[in-house]
Design brief:
Structural class: alpha/beta
Order of helices and strands: HHEHEHEEEHEHEEHEHEHHHEEEHEEHH
Helix content: 25-40%
Number of strands: 15
Number of domains: 1
CATH superfamily: Amidase signature (AS) domain
Number of helices: 14
Distance between the termini: 28 Å
Strand content: 5-15%
Length: 476
Amino acid sequence: MAWRRDAELWSLTAGELARAYRARELSPVEVLEAVLGRCEIVNPQLNAIIAFDVEGARQAARDSEGRWSKGEELGSLDGVPLTVKDNIPVRGLPTTWGSRLLAGQMSSDDELPVARLRAQGAVIFGKTNVPEFTLQGYTHSALFGTTRNPWNPRLTPGGSSGGAVAAVAAGLGPFAIGTDGGGSIRRPAGHAGLVGLKPSIGRVARVNGLPAILHDFEVIGPIARTTADVALLFATIAGPDPRDRASLAFPDWTSLIAPEPQPRRILYVPNFGDAPVDPEIVAHVAEAASEFAALGHLVEQGEAPFDIEALDQVWSVIGPAGLAWFLRGHPGWENLVQPALRRVAEQGAALRAADYIDALDKVARIRAGFAETFARFDIILTPCFAALPWDADVTYPDSIDGKQVGPRGHAVFTAFANAGGLPGISIPCRPSRRGLPVAIQLVGAFGADEVLLGLAAQYERGHPWADRWPSLVQSI
């Protein structure tokens, strides 16, 4: 498939750029300049990218152009521009974690997935906004302000990878890498009409990163407009490293998406207990479940195959304890951290060691239980989120379908994959009546990342979404 010659350069997918570079019909330099020009116009309206490395990116693009001209390209990502979330260290750019506590902190090294991207010639041109310590489901920080959703700038793109998804959805680079510790790739990607992959623990080795405050729940993963681009980015950043023992269970990932995946046994879970879900989301996800059945998969509706109450208890311990542990090494943090996160840290500091060990025991039980689940089913299908995007300056929606909810009421569907160490992917389904993106989530057995990519690609072929652009994008 050739690249779309009638399209704006900033709107091309990574796959299209690679084909155009290979045919010597486009150069990385002109593509980067198109993306940077786009950023100048759009980023002030969205506040997606909070730091740029323009000169470094231009040099990387020139180097890439020279390699392509000689037929010495480093890989399919050579010369493709992308952004990196602000809790992933990038050499020569700030890594503030969205907190005044780390304001002005510059990274001297790349975290391993970033180093792998550089080694393949990718052009890293900016860092994207996050909420403080990436522990909230919307994207605002005292350092950089609020990030807005390209589909409606009055609304949030979610979090904590809100800056990353806002950038990609608005054409500020064809893809991005983010982190997912409780749904922080999948939900924002869903709110922005994108594909977001949370890999299995260990599929993407992590070295030279920030301190882990969410046990081993948080992973780095790709965000893009298409499943093919997500797979391309995943193939570049995935793989083992001896410095990350969790990664040694997996070989290098080089396989391609199967053109037609074999029929799978899918457990469709429309709700978790009595947690409310927006009726429009319920209807559109049910429609998507029927569409998977029409593709030849065996779809069975059922309930959440894990202890929801135990998962909630885990979540009330792991994050607060981790944050309290991290802040303990920063005297005076109380004056620099936002009040909401200060309360979380105080909650964590009040926990006992026995509380943390009890949470880890629950995690082990949850993970063991999924072995039984995936002996009966290959995939769990759920809504990606329980609420459509809400006001950009509000931490979370306090009601869903007329019922009061707490801070994670909108995020109820995603955390089990993190606690289980399982791969999960969010893909768009039919949008809402107001044109806001709606997404489904597919979760597979540990290590079944390729299975998810194959199913997502199959669904995308029948229900393509890459040609949907926000009205903000179309009007500029």
